[in-house]
Write a sequence for this structure.
């Protein structure tokens, strides 16, 4: 993809003032299913899947509450456009603030946004009700976003915002020292500045040209990979680049050098055996499976799981003679944070 700048565009290009919790949540839903190019997110994916499974605990065969709405609007292919109302270019203080803004979006704006997305990929039938301004459908979407966000983003938001702030500060220094062209030249290996064009390597099957037409570009670091602007009617297009990709700041989910084994920090806190048990439980296991994978007797594995359960890190569901262990949101946060950089 080639993004074309004019002198006006260069003058109006800016760095995002704060991350958007809603945009981060939307892009994370895509990265949850797309593994290519983001191996540092593997631990996060495992833990989020375990957390989402807990949402099904009362009724295992019922679709997860976030699936009918949110997952159907989040992109399932790198070439798919994402609705603007799910990736706001101006971030607010909290997810709830952004959801209230979404709920207040005029129906004509929702309709125009969904019509554009619908020309590039199929949309669910209920999107017609959303485009028509049906308040129950809009609230259903907001509830779906909240449910998914609680598991996939909220436990990691502190480390995400810390890393994004570090990246933003580094870009601000680049801007002060070398101007906007120095910033554009350091956005990562997949982005190349060849004045007056910013070339972005994407997985889209066909290369295309995107003209800013005097609107400038918002540069926003992201925790879940990049996203290229593709809607020609964006008020001010936003390029979400991968935080730390240019080497100026750590990635939000990077393990720092010298961390040693994957959960060395966690092992120092709760012991190697218990850290290993917690890591295996992230996949959702029975006591027998846990014992085999960690190399403990069933009695020892059960005792470790009991200690972790009393600490609020593990939940156990019993069915007949089987006990099935899963992580709580607190357990997922502790495990991921213990992997480095938490």
């Amino acid at each position: 993809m080639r993004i074309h700048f004019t002198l006006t565009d260069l003058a109006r290009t800016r760095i995002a003032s704060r991350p958007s919790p809603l945009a981060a949540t939307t892009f994370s839903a895509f990265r949850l299913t797309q593994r290519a190019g983001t191996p540092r997110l593997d631990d996060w994916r495992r833990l989020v899947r375990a957390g989402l499974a807990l949402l099904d605990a009362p009724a295992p065969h019922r679709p997860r509450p976030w699936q009918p709405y949110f997952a159907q609007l989040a992109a399932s292919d790198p070439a798919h456009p994402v609705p603007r109302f799910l990736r706001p270019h101006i971030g607010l203080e909290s997810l709830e603030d952004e959801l209230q803004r979404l709920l207040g979006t005029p129906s004509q704006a929702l309709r125009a946004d969904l019509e554009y997305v619908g020309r590039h990929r199929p949309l669910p039938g209920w999107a017609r009700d959303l485009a028509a301004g049906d308040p129950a459908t809009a609230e259903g979407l907001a509830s779906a976003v909240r449910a998914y966000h609680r598991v996939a983003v909220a436990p990691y938001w502190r480390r995400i915002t810390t890393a994004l702030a570090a990246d933003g500060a580094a870009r601000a220094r680049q801007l002060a020292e070398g101007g906007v062209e120095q910033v554009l030249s350091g956005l990562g290996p997949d982005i190349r500045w060849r004045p007056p064009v910013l070339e972005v390597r994407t997985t889209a099957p066909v290369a295309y040209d995107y003209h800013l037409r005097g609107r400038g570009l918002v540069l926003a670091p992201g925790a879940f990979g990049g996203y290229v602007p593709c809607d020609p009617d964006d008020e001010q297009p936003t390029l979400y680049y991968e935080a730390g990709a240019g080497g100026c700041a750590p990635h939000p989910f990077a393990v720092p050098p010298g961390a040693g084994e994957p959960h060395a920090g966690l092992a120092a806190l709760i012991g190697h055996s218990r850290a290993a048990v917690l890591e295996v439980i992230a996949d959702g296991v029975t006591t027998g499976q846990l014992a085999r994978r960690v190399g403990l007797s069933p009695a020892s594995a059960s005792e470790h799981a009991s200690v972790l359960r009393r600490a609020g890190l593990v939940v156990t569901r019993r069915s007949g003679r089987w006990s099935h262990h899963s992580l709580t949101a607190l357990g997922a946060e502790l495990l991921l944070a213990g992997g480095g950089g938490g």
Remarks:
- The radius of gyration is 22 Å.
